[in-house]
Amino acid sequence: MRKFYLIAILWILCSIVSAHASDNMKAFPPPEDGMVRYVLQVPKQDDESTFKVELIVGKTVKLDKGNRYFFGGKIEVETIKGWGFPRYNVSKLGPMAGTMMAIDTNAPKMNRFITLGCEPYLIRYNSRLPIVVYVPEGAEVRYRIWRASPELKMMDKG
Q1: pLDDT in tens, 22-41
Q2: 3-class SS string, the chain
Q3: Which of 132, 124, 128 has its CA nearest to residue 40?
Q4: ∠ CA 93-99-101 to the nearest 5 degrees?
Q5: Disulfide engineering: 31 pairs with which of 35, 93, 120, 128, CB 3.0-4.6 Å?
Q6: Residue 135 and residue 54: Cα distance in Å, rounded?
Q7: Would you give the end-to-end CA distance of the chain in angstroms?
């Protein structure tokens, strides 16, 4: 009988957690025409203050391998009214720019992931809320998890 109660309690807790996660997604509207919504749920960490998430928006394009390219555009954060949750938007991707080094015209082109030409976009790590990014169709959202070292170092006085 004790085992039955334990299983019932675990089932109820799992139901509450999954219901809570789906409730969080109610705050995020479906994407508008021409846009795509990307969702990331990061795993729980012991000390989430030592983590950051880098959002990387770009597009895979067939280009030469010798030049450096980037897209115009930027990630903007918006707070969803009534919920207080952040959502991240890239309204448009482009135009693409890059260096103009002379490349052999016969050199094969390759698929490359070309990103927005801005500083890394780091956000707070929070496993309790999904990270939701809206981008134009054809764009991709990738991410990188950053972790701070527990070691603190002294700076020199100057």
Answers
A1: 567 899 999 999 999 999 99
A2: CHHHHHHHHHHHHHHHHHHHHHHHHHCCCCCCCCEEEEEECCCCCCCHHHEEEEEEEEEEEEECCCCCEEECCCCEEEECCCCCCEEEECCCCCCEEECCCCCCCCCCCEEEEEEECCCCEEEECCCCCCEEEEEECCCEEEEEEEECCCCCCCCCCC
A3: 132
A4: 145
A5: 35
A6: 16
A7: 70
Q: What is the pLDDT of residue 4?
A: 53
Structure token pair of residue 147: 């972790």
For residue 83 the two structure tokens come to 């919920």
Q: Tokens 């603190």 — which residue?
A: 152
Q: What is the pLDDT of residues 33-90, one digit of tens each?
A: 999 999 999 999 999 999 999 999 999 999 998 899 999 999 999 999 999 999 999 9
Residue 43 has φ and ψ, to the nearest 5°, of: -75, 155
Say which residue the tokens 């950053």 belong to. 146
CA distances from 64 to 15, 57, 99, 105 (A): 50, 20, 11, 9
